[in-house]
Design a protein that fits this description.
Two copies of one chain form a homodimer. The first copy, chain A, is mainly alpha-helical. Chain A contains 20 helices and three strands. The first copy, chain A, has a three-stranded mixed β-sheet. The mean pLDDT of chain A is 96.
């Protein structure tokens, strides 16, 4: 066990180095260094892959009696181990099994296809030319199906793909919760569309980046983001990255004519970052440190971004300070107006710009299409039409160009199938956890209104963060809320909030 | 040969990653990440060491017939190889031999002693307490002597240590040139000290960092530093680092009450950077890319800093632009006054703050003491007294505290013996090369005065940069100037320049 932990620590050390290579490339790397950086990244990835699939790990797992039936190791052989150590065995067994099951030829072909298809996609999107991307997408789906076969599955080849991002989650369970969600969201979006639109014109005035940044740091400080264990930088697309357990960096981008963009990116990424920063002492610096699934990761970012950052109480506390920085832009704007402004809902074509209500519908569309593609129930050539059909059904609008539709996301060109649903699962987990938290901290809203977010963080840390990957998403849901994933909490939250924002009925 | 080149490329890739770890630590890394960064650095260093000392390299060198008598490989076996490939064999053979000759126990003991002695030194300097550092310095000298024994040497154990930084240079040759240098410098410093001091008070007015930075970028642009292949950042101590052949980053620090500090750091580091950026196509991205010795590296930084940046012509071109940025500070300052101001000479205690004339004397003092220490001709306990005695002889001043004397530099606490002389060798090589360049480009001063530095760079690239480590310092001197290292050129330059600056005779 000690040796396995030691190997894990070594792999984590190298992963942190890989994260630095990636972070630097997006932030400060000079333009012409890109080719050499790719070589550095490739060398590092193959070193980590080599370490992760070493024969020694296989032997250690065997010694501990870990196999598909006993992923946490053999009961009698592991009797002296802690719960975390057993979870560590499960984690390593899982990765080892997945990584060793893929034939080298497939890994290589996937990686080569991906790097080419990404540039084809970028050009196709720019030129609104789905046809040129079509053969690459077909090839990627073939390869992902082959991947699913290599991993193995019971009835749905989408399962093992989804499992890469949301371990142990089944396609059927996602279908169940998404179907509940859809039943409520579609009518809510319709009701909002038919009501009087809120005015958020004060958010599209001129907000200089430098001042936005200053306000961002103020918010990060109140959210207890430790700047001696992290950083905030500027990149084309915001992200969070783990260079070490004491080095979690987030990024944002500034739009000077739309205030929301950067602030909510910062809060969103800070949510991811606080999760990574909250690992327990028994898993810090080892493989269990890090989010247990993308869904749970997204639950943390969405909790801070939406449940906290888009709450009325958040603005009760922060509006005076924001108004002192932008007195002209926010002249006459009160807490009510600010709160309604940042919560404006509007069906739109682009997922990454969508609001809290319509966002999940964008995700559902992708999930439904991905499943059909992977199960050969939809041909790639018919994908654009199916996309537009889905948009009409879910959001009531249809894009005029594929660039604003089926070609908008980079994910598929990178072979990421099974990734999208985790974005929506995050909203669901987040609301479900929050519902329990409010019972544990009855005066949480009063605390927020006074700028005190420490107990929220402490609660998340106690129940979620400290465990890292030692509890699966399903285990967290059961342990915290006593039931599996349930869409009801998110739907209730949206219905109640937006009834007020839009003065429905 | 192909396989050896491939291994070299792989090692270079990993070295670039190591450089990024170091750069990030000095620039942007959050404070508390320091322990994990040390682990990352250690993992990377041991990987590179492992690769550099692999049995496969030993076998390949043997196949090529490379040994101490044939460092460039066996004539007949290497008949088809290019000059660069033969130099590559020499480089790898040299590193392999050195790295494999040190017993693992010694490497470990050195590394542990170093990391502890550095913090002891830092405290000792702060508290002006040489006694507490003394046992650590004694231990380090024991270990360096052991290192010298392991490397092997003919008559002077200082030779193999010097060789780590200045390959193939012998202690006796340094003694020869330093003795020539000393004979001329000491009277020059004395003559200057007795003449009327120049006024540089306009350089100690308030120069806001932001504006200094802006001017720094202007200068970098004119010096043809390609910002798409490098960066300029701020660190506590300025440095240059090679993350890849297209990614050479330099740093500086800003002192708002002394204009010289940052500008000349930027030009100095740019000199190092332009060298690294100028590698020929046949060595880019492989082990020969990089400076051939610290002395040659320093010749490039000093050439740009002093021969170019402290020339009258440099200020003929740049003064108007600087005056437009700082009109009040530089009111009434003409080219003559500016030129004399940036060339002020004054004996002082601290090496890193020394001017162009006294600098080499600081280095000579350290060189003389190091040699005596390594040859057991001076006991560590008597070092402070020997230091002060040397200061009196060379510079005519004696520090009141060891913190301003023998304790000022970090080098010895890090086990760097043989490193200091390269700082002064750089000045000598620089002037010797410049003397030839002026014959090749007779109107070089007119070009500089018009802000055209392209032909200087092209000349340095053609004769020095492109070769990287494929020519040794000695080979460069012979090939370019037709003679070995000669102190005369530097002495002539100083005598003629400072006669004018100080209106001597």
């Amino acid at each position: 066990m000690d040796r396995l932990l030691e190997i894990g620590k070594d792999i984590k050390t190298w992963s942190g180095i890989g994260a630095l290579l990636g972070w630097d490339q997006e932030t400060y790397m000079p333009e012409k260094a890109v080719d050499e950086r790719s070589r550095q990244q490739a060398a590092l990835s193959s070193l980590v892959h080599e370490k992760m699939t070493s024969g020694e790990i296989g032997e250690l797992l065997e010694d501990l009696g870990a196999d598909d039936d006993n992923p946490m190791g053999d009961e009698s052989r592991c009797a002296d181990l802690s719960r975390t150590e057993r979870a560590f065995i499960r984690y390593v067994h899982r990765s080892y099994r997945k990584e060793t099951r893929l034939p080298g030829r497939l890994v290589k072909e996937l990686s080569e296809t991906r790097s080419k298809s990404q540039s084809v996609w970028a050009k196709a999107r720019q030129e609104n030319d789905f046809k040129s991307f079509q053969p690459w997408l077909e090839k990627l789906i073939d390869l992902k199906l082959e991947t699913a076969e290599a991993y193995g599955y019971d009835d749905n080849p989408y399962d093992p793909l989804l499992d890469d991002y949301e371990p142990d989650m089944k396609t059927s369970e996602v279908q169940r919760v998404f179907s509940d969600l859809k039943a409520d969201l579609v009518p809510l979006v319709k009701a909002i569309a038919e009501s009087k639109q809120v005015d958020n014109s004060f958010l599209t005035k001129h907000y200089p980046a430098k001042l936005q940044e200053e306000f961002g740091y103020k918010v990060l400080e109140k959210l207890n983001y430790p700047m001696d264990r992290g950083r905030l930088d500027v990149t084309a697309h915001p992200f969070t990255t783990e260079l070490g357990s004491d080095d979690i960096r987030i990024t944002t981008r500034y739009m000077e004519d739309f205030f929301n963009s950067s602030l909510y990116s910062i809060i969103h990424e800070a949510g991811h970052g606080l999760y990574e920063l909250g690992m327990g002492d028994d898993i810090r610096g080892n493989l269990l440190a890090g989010g247990t699934s993308l869904g749970i990761h997204e639950s943390q970012s969405r909790t801070w971004e939406n449940l906290v950052g888009r709450s009325r109480e958040f603005w009760e506390y922060f509006l005076p300070s924001l108004k002192s920085m932008f007195p002209e832009n926010l002249d006459g704007v009160d807490v009510e107006a600010m709160w309604r402004g940042v919560n404006k809902v509007e069906p739109s074509f682009i997922r990454v710009e969508a609001d809290e209500v319509t966002y999940s519908l964008h995700v559902m569309l992708r999930f439904e299409l991905e499943q059909k593609l992977i199960n050969r129930k939809l041909a790639v050539k018919d994908l654009p039409e199916a996309w537009n059909e889905g948009m009409r059904e879910l959001l009531g609008i249809v894009p005029e160009r594929d660039s604003d539709g089926v070609l908008q996301d980079v994910h598929w060109s990178f072979g990421l199938f099974g990734y999208f649903p985790t974005y929506a699962l995050g909203n669901l987990y987040g609301s479900q956890f929050w519902n329990t938290m409010v019972k544990d901290i009855p005066d949480v809203y009063t605390q927020m209104a006074s700028g005190d977010f420490t107990r929220i963080l402490a609660w998340l840390r106690e129940h979620i963060h400290q465990y890292g990957s030692s509890k699966t998403a399903g285990e967290l849901a059961m342990d915290i809320t006593g039931e599996p994933l349930n869409a009801r909490y998110f739907v209730d939250y949206l219905n109640s909030k937006y009834k007020t924002v839009y003065k429905l009925d």
